[in-house]
């Protein structure tokens, strides 16, 4: 069996399942964020009648419109806090703790061998810690709140072998963008993607970046095996080895597709507007003016991302006609970057520090673009209108490329500054 | 009945911009912004019974369900695409919006051709050519037949407590 078959069989209390079958399971976690208010509204009457299925299944993190953008979002947050209080939801994280996906992983709420769903497409991030994790819509989150159970079609799987080691100034973001550019935005539609090979050099942060982008190739989940890197990370956040179960594919598992990427050959790349699979080497677009740089988000807002940016920028200043926004993935990552002095470096260079959350990534507030502007961003999407303006352009890149480009005000190869 | 014809990888930001996702949840709030970053004519001119035909990976991107809720609310009869992104496809089941994966039918379609849908029979006729499409899997037909996931869930919960809907 593949990872997906094995884990879904286990969760469905079956000895084995095959790709294509439909199984019913009770996910270990159900994540919601600011959309919890709209989810609760859908089932207001049923909540009074039936209550919730399992309070420990539910995790709510306020991150998308924080601090509240207007009276409407503030009222939504208040409603969520009242729900949390009334139903005794212990896994609740209020404004400022971080982006839900980062919080799920760093608080140890999602562990190897878990089945997690979330009313957010980037729920696939938890494959970094060997979980089967996938996005659902609000309606399904509402039904799950009441019943605790949903259906899963066991996906076909794709095996991606990673060989070698990434060169200097080339990051996991360049790797995953290259993979998406190669297989396309629908290249893994409905399927489970298993990463393997020479992964010991990929840190937990690298794996998070890669798994986070799984949905941008259409994947149902994107997963790494457990190794010493995973075990070390979990130990570091206080998770005992006895509290999780590692899962991985059998050697004779059947795959729909097998791909190999040589990490030595990866170069700095961008995803050009308006599709994530429109991937080009930085050298092809170098010199394009940029008005805004976004460094952060759940894709690349960890202390290691600020560290590489601070190392590149050093004592220099951001280009005069360019704005640099810093968006930490969580308070914990912000604290680590503060301790390292990297936030100080980036703020002194001209960076604007935003609260840990989603902010400009979805165009709701904090760094909305104007018509004709171009943004270079470490986020995961460059869709038209994504940052609040349909006549603006978004290029996606690594934190190294964003930092180098913030210095010059033009898209710049990080190996050249 | 009008056919709205779009290309590949139409994402949910184009179908319903992210900037509205936390302020518009109800059908009446969603309708004016439907397909806003794809086709400004759509929200103004869409009529009940209209059909959308599109390329591969329709509905990719965010898990927001407003596009599906909105398309259902304005009375779109079906979206026929070469393929759908999975969260969007699931949202179609959850809202009772008919999503038809029929790559040959999409390849055959040329703007101006007539499109006749017989959902019950699982058939769509484009021009003079008929294409059939499969029904949802038996395990989830209950959701489809109930008219969506919330109706199905209410029914199940009430049944489990020995009460009528």
Provide the fold topology.
The complex is a heterodimer of chains A (417) and B (165).
Chain A (H helix, E strand, L loop, with lengths): L2 H9 L10 E4 L3 E4 L3 H7 L1 H7 L7 E4 L9 H17 L4 E2 L6 H7 L8 E4 L13 E4 L2 H10 L2 E4 L3 E7 L8 H12 L8 E6 L6 H9 L8 E3 L4 H9 L20 E6 L6 E3 L7 E3 H4 L6 E5 H4 L2 H11 L9 E5 L3 H9 L2 H7 L3 E2 L20 E4 L15 E4 L2 H10 L9
Parallel strand pairs in A: 2-3, 2-5, 3-4, 5-6, 8-9, 8-11, 9-10, 14-15, 14-17, 15-16, 17-18
Antiparallel strand pairs in A: 1-7, 12-13
Helix pairs in contact in A: 2-4, 2-6, 7-8, 12-13, 12-14, 12-15
Chain B lengths: L2 E3 L6 H4 L11 H4 L9 H6 L5 E4 L11 H8 L4 E4 L4 H10 L3 E3 L1 H6 L6 E4 L4 E4 L2 E4 L8 H6 L2 H12 L5
Parallel strand pairs in B: 1-2, 2-3, 3-4
Antiparallel strand pairs in B: 5-6, 6-7
Describe this structure in words.
The complex is a heterodimer of chains A (417) and B (165). Chain A has 417 residues and is α/β, with parallel strands linked by helices. Chain A has 2 domains: 3-147 and 154-261, Aconitase, domain 3, CATH 3.30.499; 269-416, 2-Layer Sandwich (Aconitase, domain 3), CATH 3.30.499.10. Chain A has 15 helices and 18 strands. Chain A has helices spanning 3-11, 36-42, 44-50, 71-87, 100-106, 138-147, 172-183, 204-212, 228-236, 282-285, 297-300, 303-313, 331-339, 342-348, 399-408, and strands spanning 22-25, 29-32, 58-61, 92-93, 115-118, 132-135, 150-153, 157-163, 192-197, 221-223, 257-262, 269-271, 279-281, 292-296, 323-327, 352-353, 374-377, 393-396. In chain A, the strands form 5 sheets. Chain A has a 5-stranded parallel β-sheet with strand order 4-3-2-5-6, sandwiched between helices. Chain A has a 5-stranded parallel β-sheet with strand order 16-15-14-17-18. Chain A has a 4-stranded parallel β-sheet with strand order 10-9-8-11, with helices on one face. In chain A, helix 12 (303-313) runs parallel beside helix 15. The radius of gyration of chain A is 21 Å and the shape is globular. Chain A starts with a helix and ends in a 9-residue tail after the last helix. The model of chain A has no long low-confidence stretch (mean pLDDT 97). Chain B has 165 residues and is an alpha/beta fold. Chain B has 2 domains: 3-134, Aconitase, domain 4, CATH 3.20.19; 135-165, no CATH class. Helices cover 34% and strands 16% of the residues of chain B. Chain B contains 8 helices and 7 strands, in the order E-H-H-H-E-H-E-H-E-H-E-E-E-H-H. Chain B has helices spanning 12-15, 27-30, 40-45, 66-73, 86-95, 103-108, 141-146, 149-160; strands at 3-5, 51-54, 78-81, 99-101, 115-118, 123-126, 129-132. Chain B has a 4-stranded parallel β-sheet with strand order 1-2-3-4. Chain B has a 3-stranded antiparallel β-sheet with strand order 5-6-7. In chain B, helix 5 links the parallel strand 3 and strand 4. Chain B is globular and about 50 Å long. The termini of chain B are far apart. The relative contact order of chain B is 0.14. The model of chain B has no long low-confidence stretch (mean pLDDT 94). The chains are: A alpha/beta (417), B alpha/beta (165). Chains A and B meet through helix 2, helix 3, helix 4 and helix 6 of A and helix 5 and helix 8 of B.
């Amino acid at each position: 069996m593949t990872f997906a078959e094995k884990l879904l069989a286990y969760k469905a209390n079956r000895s084995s399942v095959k790709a294509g079958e439909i199984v019913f399971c009770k996910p270990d976690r159900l994540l919601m964020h600011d959309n919890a208010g709209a989810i609760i509204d859908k089932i207001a009457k049923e909540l009074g009648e039936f209550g919730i299925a399992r309070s420990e299944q539910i995790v709510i993190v306020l991150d998308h419109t924080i601090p509240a953008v207007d009276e409407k979002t503030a009222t939504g947050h208040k409603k969520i806090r009242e729900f949390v209080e009334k139903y005794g939801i212990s896994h609740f994280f209020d404004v400022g703790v971080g982006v839900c996906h980062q919080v799920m992983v760093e608080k140890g709420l999602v562990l190897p061998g878990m089945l997690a769903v979330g009313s957010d497409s980037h729920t696939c991030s938890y494959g970094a810690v060997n979980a089967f994790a996938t996005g659902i819509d609000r309606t399904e989150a509402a039904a799950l709140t009441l019943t605790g159970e949903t259906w899963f079609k066991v996906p076909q799987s794709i095996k991606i072998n990673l060989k070698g080691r990434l060169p200097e100034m080339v990051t996991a973001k360049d790797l995953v963008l290259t993979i998406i550019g190669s297989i396309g935005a629908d290249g893994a539609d409905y399927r489970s993607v298993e990463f393997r090979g020479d992964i010991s050099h990929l840190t937990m942060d690298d794996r998070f970046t890669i798994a986070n982008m799984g949905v941008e190739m259409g994947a149902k989940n994107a997963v790494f095996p457990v190794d010493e890197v995973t075990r070390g990370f979990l130990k570091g956040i206080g998770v005992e080895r006895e509290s999780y179960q590692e899962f991985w594919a059998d050697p004779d598992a059947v795959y729909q597709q097998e791909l190999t990427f040589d990490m030595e050959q990866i170069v700095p790349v961008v995803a050009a507007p308006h599709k994530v699979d429109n991937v080009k080497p930085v050298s092809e677009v170098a010199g394009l003016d940029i008005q805004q740089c976004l460094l952060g988000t759940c894709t690349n807002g960890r202390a290691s991302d600020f560290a590489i940016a601070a190392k590149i920028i050093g004592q220099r200043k951001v280009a005069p006609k360019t704005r640099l926004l810093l968006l930490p993935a969580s308070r914990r990552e912000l604290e680590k970057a503060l301790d390292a002095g990297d936030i100080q470096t980036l703020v002194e260079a001209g960076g604007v520090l935003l609260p840990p959350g989603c902010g400009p990534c979805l165009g709701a507030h904090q760094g909305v673009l104007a018509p004709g502007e171009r943004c270079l961003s470490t986020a995961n999407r460059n869709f038209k209108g994504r940052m609040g303006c349909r006549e603006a352009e978004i290029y996606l890149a690594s934190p190294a490329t964003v930092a180098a480009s913030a210095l010059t005000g033009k898209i710049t190869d990080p190996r050249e500054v | 009945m009008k056919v709205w014809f779009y290309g590949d990888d139409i994402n949910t930001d184009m179908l319903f911009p992210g900037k509205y996702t936390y302020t518009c949840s109800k059908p009446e709030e969603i309708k004016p912004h439907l397909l806003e970053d794809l086709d400004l004519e759509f929200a103004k001119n869409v009529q009940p019974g209209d059909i959308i035909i599109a390329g591969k990976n329709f509905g990719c991107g965010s898990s927001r369900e407003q596009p599906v809720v909105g398309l259902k609310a304005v009375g779109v009869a079906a979206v026929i695409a070469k393929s759908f992104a999975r969260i969007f496809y699931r949202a179609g089941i959850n809202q009772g919006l008919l999503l038809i994966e029929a790559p040959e039918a999409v390849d055959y379609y040329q703007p101006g051709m007539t499109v006749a849908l017989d959902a019950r029979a699982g058939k769509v006729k484009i021009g003079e050519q008929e294409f059939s499409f499969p029904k949802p899997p038996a395990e989830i037909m209950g959701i489809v037949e109930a008219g969506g996931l919330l109706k199905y869930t209410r029914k199940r919960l009430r049944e489990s407590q020995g009460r009528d809907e």
